[in-house]
Each structure stands twice: as structure tokens, then as C-alpha cells.
Amino acid sequence: MLLSLAMRLLTALLCLLPLVVQSQTAAPVIVIEQTRKIDVAIEPIGGSEGPTVTKVLTDDLNRSGVCRVVPADSASFVLSGSITLSGLSGRATPKAGGAAVVDKSFSGDSRRAAHLFADAVVDALTGTPGFASSKITFASASGAKKSKVKEIYVSDIDGANARQLTQDKSLGYGPKFSPDGSKIAYSSDKSGYRDTYVIDLGSKKRTCVAQFPGQNTGATFSPDGSTLALSLSKFGNPEICTIAATGGEPTRLTQTRGTDCSPSWSPDGTRIVYVSDERGSPGLYIIPATGGEPERLNTESSYTTEPDWSPDGKLIAYSISSGGGQIGVYDVAGKKARVVSRGSGLESPSWTRNSRHLVASQNGNLVLLDTLTGETTKIPNNLSNNTEPNTSR
User: How far is CA 98 from the centre of its chain?
Assistant: First the structure.
């Protein structure tokens, strides 16, 4: 029993090392690209909840990175609509005249309907998906009476409607949404060991899906939602494995002498990027989802962790411990890396639907990072000590 506890503690510390160790290798030069924004005006939305919708819609579009809300005389498109108990009717029309680019109804409460309207506008004007209606799940120690307590939360992507999902009174780690956003996988020490659970957000039912000897961490859903990739130490060193999303016997993918953790699936489900320190300091590797020979990625940084594969499959975001905490992006086809963040204290990047923005943590706060401009926007949620965010897609 004592040997088992010691092994669990050792492997837990190894998996956490990438978050605190500093690299002495210089990070790649930051490359900032500027993008042109589309000017839109918003006529006050009608209805008793109209002011709320107008404010949320304005914030969503300004946050999108592709639209800018301006006075009507400067706009290229004009948004209008009204909200009732049955939903929001929204229109977006060219100021110069012509057919509406958006003309539909959106259901849900006033905030939800406004988010959906914003996403429809972004999609219609740019051809890329909006992310205003996305959710964030994250771990937070806010309000905890003990230093070793972190619960799992979920909120809108703008920080509103934050609510606590767990009452474990222990350390919770690495929550990840299922592809359809209906479930969250996470790890917790609630049993005295680090096991993996899945929460069904609809029924609020929680199932333990990985409780093998040693550590069971970093679970992430496959694109079809049927499988989890995670790090298991039941074989000795922590290795990347896959199991059914409902639990079952694991399939081992890696066999190294180091610690392998933090898996993330490619959008087509054929490959997995993960972290390994088998060559000394942690770096990124890609392995076929069915197993095989890993490929090491050259990120030009000697200490890279927490990879996340973009929805379009072109990029992998990751944390860099050098420079006080930065976010990098790796171009999978071009095999090139670049730093996309400014400032310091950034970690745990998670892509939004547009494969341009990332949600990350920065010194206990959640932020939205634009990878094209390097700008960060704080996501206020009235909580502190927020870590490991993950965005629904």
C-alpha cells in the first residue's frame, strides 16, 4: 500500500512539473499579424430584454476579432431585431441596401439568443464560425477553505453564468468537454487517488471511467465522442492510452522511459499530440491514434506542455515555460512554431471554434487570446485561482 501511494505521488509530481519549471532556451520571435475588421452598427433591440441583448451582442461582436461595432453612419452592415418570450428575431442587412445576410429567429434566454445571433452574423460576414455561444469549463480554487481543493466549474465564454459542477472538496484537474458539449471529463483526488470521471451535464450524473492503479489523468474525448485518450501509470511510467468513453480496458499507445501526458486529438481522430520528457525536458510528440512510432515536433522551445489541436486541424497550441509563461502555436503542415502571446503567466491554451482565438489562464484569471494580434482580453467570472480552461466547440 505504501509503495502504491509513493508511486502515485511521484507520477503526479512529474505530470505537474511542466507547469512550474523554467526553461533557459529562448522562445521564438513573436510574429503579429493585423487583420481588417468589418464595421457593423446595432439598432437598439426591441422588447423588455432588448437592452440586455443589445449589450451582449455588442460585446460579442467586438470580442470576435473580425467585427467592430460603430455608429450607423460608419457601418457597412446594420443589425436589428426584437426579443419576446418566444425568442429573438434578428436581421443583418447591408447598409447600402440589398438582401439580408442574416434573417432568422434564435431561441433561449436573452443572453443565449444574443450569443447565437452574434455567431450567425460572424459566420455570414466572414465564412468562419463564431464562438460567442461556446462554454468554458475550468478548475478553480476560488472560495476553497483548504489549499488543496479545486472544484470544476462551467461558464459562458464571456464569463457569465459561472456555476460550480463538483463538490468533491479535493483537487480537480483538467476538465474537457465532449464534442457535443454535453459531457465533461476530468480527474479528481476525491477517492484518495487520482481517478478520471465523466459528468453528464444534462442529468448531472457522474461516472468513474478510469480507476486503475496509479494515476489516471488528462482525459480528452475523441472527435466522435466514443473514446478517451488519457495518461495512465498502471504500466509503470505514465503512458498515453485510450479507453471507451464509458470506461473499460485501456489500449496502450506509448512505451517510453519517461512521463507521457496531456493528449489532444487531431480533428479527424487519426492522431494524438501529447507531452513526453523521454529525452529530458518535456516536448511535444504526435502518435497515430491506433499506436505506432511517435514523431517529435520541433517547437524551438525546450520546455513545452499542454498541447491543444485546433478545430481546423492546421495548428497545435501549447504552453511555453520560458519567458515567464507564453503560448506558442505549431503549424502542422509547415512544421514551424511561433509565439503568439504577449505578457507573461500564460498557460493551458484551448482553441475556440474559429481556430484563431484561444482561451487560456493567466495568473489565476481566464483570458481570451487572439493568436493573430497577440491581444488578450480578461474573461471576468468573479472567481479566483482559475486554471486549465477548456472551450466547447
Answer: 38
SS3 per-residue string spanning the chain: CHHHHHHHHHHHHHHHHHHCCCCCCCCCCECCCCCCCEEEEECCCECCCHHHHHHHHHHHHHHCCCEEECCHHHCCEEEEEEEECCEEEEEEEECCCCCCCEEEEECCCHHHHHHHHHHHHHHHHHCCCCCCCCEEEEEECCCCCCCCCEEEEEEECCCCCCEECCCCCCEEEEEEECCCCCEEEEEECCCCCCEEEEEECCCCCEEEEECCCCCEEEEEECCCCCEEEEEECCCCCCEEEEEECCCCCCEECCCCCCCEEEEEECCCCCEEEEEECCCCCCEEEEEECCCCCCEECCCCCCCEEEEEECCCCCEEEEEECHHHCEEEEEECCCCEEEECCCCCCEEEEEECCCCCEEEEEECCEEEEEECCCCCEEEECCCCCCEEEEEECC
Query: Could you report the per-residue pLDDT of 296-341, keeping only the tens digit for each?
Result: 999 999 899 999 999 999 999 999 997 789 999 999 999 999 999 9
Digit-coded pLDDT (tens) for 371-392: 999 999 999 999 999 999 999 9
Fold for the domain defined by 38-126: Rossmann fold (3.40.50)
**Taking the domain 2-31+134-391, which CATH number applies?**
2.120.10.30
